[in-house]
Amino acid sequence: MVSKIKKADPEAAQVLVSALDTQEVTRGVLPPVDVDSRMNLLREERSVVLEFEPLWPTDIRKQLELVLAERRNALKLIGAGLQPIKTAMFKGPPGVGKTMAARWLARELNLPLLTLDLASVMSSLLGKTGSNLKATIDYGSSFPCVLLLDEFDAVAKRRDDDRDVGELKRLVTVLLQAFDQWPSSSLLVAATNHPELLDPAVWRRFDVQLDFAAPAIDEISALLRHEGLSDSFVSRIAPLLAGASYADIRRKLLSARKVGLLQDLPFEQVLLEQNASKPQSLRAEEVRRLRQAGMSQRKIADSLGISHPTVNRILKSLEKGNYGYQEPSA
Ligand SMILES: Nc1ncnc2c1ncn2[C@@H]1O[C@H](COP(=O)(O)OP(=O)(O)O)[C@@H](O)[C@H]1O
Ligand SMILES: [Mg+2]
């Protein structure tokens, strides 16, 4: 609208821009409740507090910063006839920061966060889900906020149930319309562990899609250093945590801290012991990989946090082609 009237009446365009800018919001609708139970459908946080500062991998950080930049300069973009990013899809396995990223965005943008956990809404009857979803989206559209549709794939999971196919189609239509009509004053984020369950027609509608993944060794190391672990210890323990999600790693650190405290053992020792017991085949595979990359046996031992003789034994048995190698328990 602004770009349309700008030529004819620049002053009116300016008034419109500043009207959009106002933080004084009048909420046209009440927070949505379930039609039957009258329970609140949404969790609403006026200002988000994170229990922990995220450390974003470089590519994720770049994409999140882009969302922030567009949101912060939304009026400038709108003034030039451009749409700022208003819908985002976060994909990836559990525990890798999708929910956290939505929370972080809300905090950085200084906007309230509304969270709709679709897994719980979908457990109600599908017909009501449609009206619940619609009420939620109407509410989220009525004032500047970040609306997080968490566990978004729950919508698609019902597809297996033939009885509900008609209702489901209507539901998807509600969603698609909501995405198209979503106002540029708010940000809608959908997060899912199972993007493959979603109809491509749904996720094509999102302005941006971010792929979250388990942290790489470098990111694990950064997280551990951030937790105050020494560089030399980090280089020993990080490879043992490869493949774990951020959530797993935080759990492991916490558990080692508790055991260390209760049993009066050094935290480092507990963490190493708790994580050194990888399946043997997996460990042998790691040793083989590092050896092929030209690493010395001593270095392999250090980086995997296992003893030098153990590395030697694994390598010998790999040479013999004895892949069913059993590590002596002693
Ligand atoms: N980038 C990150 N940096 C640090 N910790 C993280 C990061 N991502 C996730 N975590 C930790 O993992 C936990 C679970 O993350 P969450 O965002 O809930 O995962 P999901 O991808 O399943 O939504 C968080 O509470 C936080 O402790
Ligand atoms: Mg989550």
TrEMBL record:
Origin species: Paenacidovorax caeni
Output the PANTHER family linked to this UniProt entry.
26S PROTEASOME REGULATORY SUBUNIT (PTHR23073)
Name assigned to this protein:
Winged helix-turn-helix DNA-binding
Matching entries from InterPro entries are given as: 26S_Proteasome_ATPase, AAA+_ATPase, ATPase_AAA_core, P-loop_NTPase
A molecular function (GO) held by this record is: DNA binding
State the family named in the UniProt similarity comment for this chain.
Belongs to the AAA ATPase family.
UniProt cross-references to SUPFAM superfamilies, sorted A to Z: P-loop containing nucleoside triphosphate hydrolases (SSF52540)
Superkingdom of this protein's organism: Bacteria
Q: Which residues form the AAA+ ATPase domain?
A: 84-216
Q: Which Gene3D superfamilies match?
A: Homeodomain-like, P-loop containing nucleotide triphosphate hydrolases
SMART domains (alphabetical): AAA
